[in-house]
Amino acid sequence: MKYMMLVCTDLEPDTDRENEPDIDVWVAENDAAGRRVFGNQLAPKSAATTVRVRNGRLLVTDGPFAETREVIVGFDLLECADLDEAIEVARAHPMARGGRLELRPLADFEQ
């Protein structure tokens, strides 16, 4: 099953820096195991553009969709057997301690 893992900042990161995982090791291990399909960092939120159509009119605004202090800074597309495996993959990601990770299964429109 494929999961989108959104990598976000958090205003209350873990203060315990002992045994902090390395992102390059995490990427290499999950790529080699076939659990990480693709991933990347995002440009700063100042580069975001929000697009809407209301009453047939295109509305384009600079900036992110929502004004929040937490920011989505990256993503990884995971291929895992189930949510338990996806949680273990996320648990080992450095941003599980320095930020927060949101896992969402991709929608299956063929069911």
Q: Report strand %.
A: 35-45%
Strand count, sense and barrel status of the largest sheet are: 4 strands, antiparallel
* Unreliable sequence segments: none
Instruction: Enumerate the strands of the largest sheet in spatial order, edge to edge or round the barrel.
Output: 2-5-1-6
Question: Percent of residues in helical segments?
Answer: 10-25%
Shape: globular
SS summary, helix count: 3
Q: Gyration radius, to the nearest Å?
A: 16 Å
The strand count comes to 6
What key phrases describe this protein's structure?
111 residues; two-stranded antiparallel ribbon; 3 helices; globular
Give a brief rundown of this model.
The chain is α+β, with helices and mostly antiparallel strands. The chain contains three helices and six strands, in the order E-H-E-E-E-E-H-H-E.
Architecture overview:
By secondary structure, the chain is α+β, with helices and mostly antiparallel strands. Helix content is 21%, strand content 37%. The chain has three helices and six strands; from the N terminus they run βαββββααβ. Strands 2-5-1-6 form a four-stranded antiparallel β-sheet. Strands 3-4 form a two-stranded antiparallel ribbon. A hairpin with a 2-residue loop joins β3 and β4. The longest helix has 10 residues, at 23-32. The chain is globular.
